[in-house]
Description:
Helix 7 packs across helix 11, helix 9 (about 230-235) packs antiparallel against helix 10 and helix 10 packs antiparallel against helix 11 (about 250-280). The strands form two sheets. This protein has a six-stranded parallel β-sheet. The protein has a two-stranded antiparallel ribbon with strand order 3-4. The chain contains twelve helices and eight strands. The protein is an alpha/beta fold. Strand 3 (about 55-60) and strand 4 (about 60) form a beta hairpin. Among the domains are: about 120-180; about 195-265, Helix Hairpins.
Amino acid sequence: MSIKYNLVTVLGPTASGKTKLAAALANEFNGEIISCDSRQFYRGMDIGTGKDYEDYIVNGQKVPVHLIDFLYPSDDYDVFHYQKDFLISYSSISSDNKIPFMVGGSGLYLSSILQQYRFVPVSMDEEKIAQFDSISTYELKNRLLAISPKLHNTTDLIERDRIIRALIITNESRNGGGEVSHPVIVSFNIYINPERQLLKDRIAERLEKRLNSGMIEEVKTLLENNIPASRLNYFGLEYRFITMYLLNEISLPEMIEKLRYAIFDFAKRQVTWFRRMEKQGVVLHKVDEPYFENASVLLQKIGITS
């Protein structure tokens, strides 16, 4: 791999085609993939999270992928744990003289690696959580933004339990503690940034395909397997709105319309996050489409060879 870079990252908003591109590049340049999609970590959540397993098959060969399907939906997991797990996978791939390819669109998780956030281990005991009981969600959100403005427009600001968790982590991180020890990561970043209307059309097309492929049945199975509706709501987007539909809170047409809008709004928030990363110094090499030839040339120019 290039002396200057020790990681290749393929990022972009949902439905931009980043997974298929990353798999093709990893196959060509002797690499393995590390997922950076915070919902693809979970087993049994395949259609709704877009685990398109066929994308990892290139020329009849399966490209190795790390950090998908290793958690149960009931498991607690956060960016602190992701950073540790990423570094384990990264070290394993690098020690085999292969190139680590990180691919995904989860902004905070991407930033934790590309901007090398420093976290401390934090326990979430009842006493710590209880101190926030009398504080409104609105006030909690304002407190979190005041001490950590980079969290603006992330899912940590949507659910009350996530806000509290983020407050506890942020407060304890500011007070010091044992940091995660890891090497300096220097990533070459390929950012797929389609034109807005094209992305909107792709989101609508993909949603229809997933609905026809059994996405509603997937959520129904999760509910039948005793995953609470509140937990599915935590995962947002497909899992939130399909659960509402299955609980007869909204109609099918209403669910589809709300979900389509929510996914596109999520994509806009992703783009906002990536722009903020750029302003903070992360260099993103932009491409309009996930074309293998163009991305391959970019890697060859920095000295990565197949």
